[in-house]
Design goal:
About 25% of the residues lie in helices and about 20% in strands. It has about 550 residues and is an alpha/beta fold.
Amino acid sequence: MESAGEYDYIIVGGGTAGCVLANRLTRDQNVSVLLVEAGGKDDYVWIHIPVGYLHCIGNPRTDWLYSTEADAGLGGRSLIYPRGKVLGGSSSINGMIYMRGQAGDYDHWADLTDDTSWRWEHVLPLFKQSEDYYGGPSENHGVGGEWRVEKQRLSWDILNAFRDAAQQTGIPKTSDFNGGDNSGCAYFDVNQRRGIRWNTSKAFLKPASRRPNLTIMTGCHVERLLFTTLENGPRCTGIVFTGGGTLWQAMARRETLLTAGAIGSPQLLQLSGIGPADLLRQHGIVPVRESAGVGANLQDHLQLRMVFKVQGVKTLNQVASRWLGKMQIGLQYALFQSGPMSMAPSQLGAFAKSDPAQATPNLQYHVQPLSLDKFGDPLHVFPAFTASVCNLRPTSRGQVRIHSADSYAAPKIIPNYLSTPQDLKVAADALRLTRSIVAAPALHKFAPQEYLPGVQYQTEEELARAASQIGTTIFHPVGTCRMGLASEPSSVVDSQLRVIGVAGLRVVDASIMPYITSGNTNSPTVMIAEKAAVMIQTAWK
C-alpha cells in the first residue's frame, strides 16, 4: 500500500458539497486538504451544454449507473437512479434548478436537533453568501458569490398558457420561489452562466485548485475508512483508496469529511463498519460502531408525469422531429446560447396544495413543452406537453444497504415509493389538481387531451394505480445519514454533522437531511456545505 500523505482534512467525494468544502477550507493557508473523487474531470462537453444531461445520465463517464430494486409501489418496476460520478457530482448532470425550499423545512430541522442555528433566518445568509443573483442584492438574494443564478433564456406559449391556467385555478403567479415561501407559478431560475451549465466544480473547485494547500485526486475509488480505537471510542484517521492501479492510504490529522452523497455516504460507512450490526455481520464486516440509522430514512420526490396532447401551439416534439428544426436549434445555441439547447429539463414550476388543509404547498410541478414515454425515449411525434407533479413531503421511507463487502458492488437502493396511505392520497389529489389546471380557460384554445395516464382513471383506487404506473424519480435522494439528537437511535450525525460515537468524521451532503426539502435539493446541499465549513473552522480555531 502506497502512502498518499497526511493532510489536515480529507474530503471523500468531489461532488456538490465536496467542491464547496474544498474551497472554503483552503482559504486558510495554514491547513492542507485532500479531495478524492471516483470520477474524472468535468471536461466532457455535454456537461456544460444544458441539454447535455441527456448524454450524461446513463453514461459511465459521468454517472454511477445505479438502479433501484424492484419497487412494489411502482408495480414492481425498477428505476434508473442517476448520481454524478465526476467533479461537480450531480451538479454536473442535474436539472440546474435553483431552489432552496421553504422556511419551515429548516425550522423543522432546528426543532428536531434542538439547534436553532438551522432555522431559516440563520441559513438564509448562507444561501446568500454563495449566491450571485441576476436580479441584484436584496433581502432574500446575494451577489458576488460563486453560485451563479440566472433567468432561463427561453419562453414557450404553451408554458405561458399553463401558468395562466394555474392562476385561474388558484395558484398565483410569482416572480421568486426562493424567499422562504415558494407558493405560486413561474419559470424556474437556473444555475447557468449565459446559457452554459454552472456546476460546483466550475463555481467553487476551480478557483480553489490554484491554491497550493489543496490536492485533488480524480479517478480514485475509496474502499473504506480507517479507524483507531481510543479510550472513549473509535476515531477516523484516514482512508484507503485505489487509483491508477495502486492501493493508497491517506491520513487525516484533523477530520475526514464524507461528501459522497445520499447513496455513496451510507454505503461507505457500512463498508467501513458503521451501520446496522446485523447487516455488517451478514457481509463479514466487523462493526466499528453500530448505527441503525445508516442507510435508513431514504426519501425522494416521486414525480407523476402527466402528458397532454395539444393543437395549434408549438412544442419541442414538432420542432425536434425535423432536420431543419434540429439545425435551427443548434444554430440558435451556437450563436446566442439560447433556445432548446439551453433548456433545463423542466422550465416552468408551480407550488400548490394537494388539499386546502395543507399549511404550505406540498406539491411541486415541473412543466415541459415536450413529451415522451419515459426518460431516454424519443419524443412523441404529436404535439404535447408534460406536467409532472411530485409530493414534496412524502411519508414513505426507503433504505440503502450494501449488497456485499465489495466496495465496487452497487448498493441496494430500496425507495418504497407510495408505501403509505398518506402518499397514495396525495398522489390521487395531485392528479386531480393537474386535470383541473388543464381544464382551465387559458388552455382551452389548445384543446388539451390527456394521453398519460388517461381519463379512464377516475376513482381513488384507479388514480392510485395510475400513480404507480407513471411515477418516476426526479432524482432527489436524501436522508440516509440522518441528522438528529445523539439520544435517538435513528440519528447518524449530530447537528454539527459529526458522526455520533466516532471522532474525526463528519458527513456533509444531502444524506444528513432529516426531512427532505420542499423542492429541488442541490442548492440546499450547497448551503449544508457552507454551514459545515463554518462549523469545522470554528471547532479547530
